[in-house]
Prior knowledge:
With 440 residues, the chain is α+β, with helices and mostly antiparallel strands.
Amino acid sequence: MRLSQYFMPVLRDDPKEAEIASHRLMLRTGMVRQEAAGSYSWLPMGFRVLKKIEQIVREEQNRAGALEVLMPTLQSADLWRKSGRYDDYGKEMLRIKDRQDRDLLYGPTNEEMITDIFRSGIQSYKDMPRNLYHIQWKFRDEVRPRFGVMRGREFLMKDAYSFDVTREAGQHAYNKMFVSYLKTFARLGIKAVPMRADTGPIGGDDSHEFLVLADTGESGVFFDGALHDLDWSTIEIDYDNVEAVANMVSEYTSKYAATDEKHDQSEFEKRVPEGKRLSGRGIEVGHIFFFGDKYSKPLGCEVQGPDGKKITVQSGSYGIGVSRLVGGIIEASHDKDGIIWPESVAPFHVGLINLKVGDAEADAACEKIYKALEAKGVEVLYDDRNQPGGAKFAAMDLIGLPWQVIIGPRGLKDGIAEVKNRKTGARENVALDQIVGRFA
RNA sequence: CGGGGCGUAGCGCAGUCUGGUAGCGCACCUGCCUUGGGCGCAGGGGGUCGCGAGUUCGAAUCCCGCCGCCCCGACCA
């Protein structure tokens, strides 16, 4: 993409309403635009990141055996009346009437609907287990939306729902999602620590939150430094191996880790040696629940078992805040100059800077490399605007692409360009004809 | 929902107390110059001052009502 033809409204000053880094940087880099309290338009740069995160989440859900569906944003109130949550959910649920005066709502979550879909789609225990998920916009009318996309009212969420015959099978479904979350967050370039969580109003038997460590997190967290020492990046697992999956879950859950609501200082001190006691703040980016029959019972979600008798299914639900992750990743990965994108979610892989637009030699060298990178499928953002070098460096650091290729008269004399790593700041001179090979 | 604050050009702000018909920086447009860390010179465009109703000869400014947004707290996938 040529920057001269892109839509990336970069702001030079910090917008006054943005207090925290991710919100400030997302607005400054033109990733999003606020439309109302807690509601954002996603502009090209932000949308690319959102889609990359979504795709990684999707791939890991699929790998763990979940099946993708898509449910509508608007739901009928009837389903919610049946589960008893229509009145319980309160003002956070956006209620709407259609022209026939029927009660609708903009879905804040989908337990009711998916349970109904599942029930009507299967008849026998032989059709289980199943795990269905979708990645869809939700709306929760938050009392106080804030922090940009981190606590918006409209947000993109992956929610999965498992259905099993027995409690043990349901536990395995829960464990599979647990492990898939570890893999997902590792691929996203962040460390999200699983912590035992309150089941809250959603209820249920077992629950874990996954929190990204960041100073601006909304929850205080206390955990065993040994969790940091585990290698998260290379998790290999056979999801059908019940024991292996369970072992991995217990490896991560045996260490002390708790949010401030669940924190027990004396237990913390008893279980974790002093030098390993870590505390800080975290952003919740995932939350998994095992329900048992809490939802399936009132909704009459039953199947016929081998003995001909009805069995109430065991269910769980598993959420990842996709749009929140955009902010969460920035919170965990930025410096004073701007964003530092992990390679897996960066909007572009390489930023190509032409330091002397209009100079025949510089233009030709940049064009050649730009076209070659594009031909190789390398995502490259070419800053071909006629602006002074300083402005280009500042902008490229701000948007935080992992690599910068800097081409100007000084290096061209010797047939070289500079390759800069945004994260480490390391610079390296590379021969022009070697550049493409570095990234392709 | 309690407390506090803000709304004037795309962004950041001054002007409001003390009423006189709107200004600064950046950005933008034209031309020249320049090009290795937000460059320089000259010229130029852009605002129903959040909305409505009042007071007044005259309202960004005073009065009344409303709307929107932000921050702290309570709450929260």
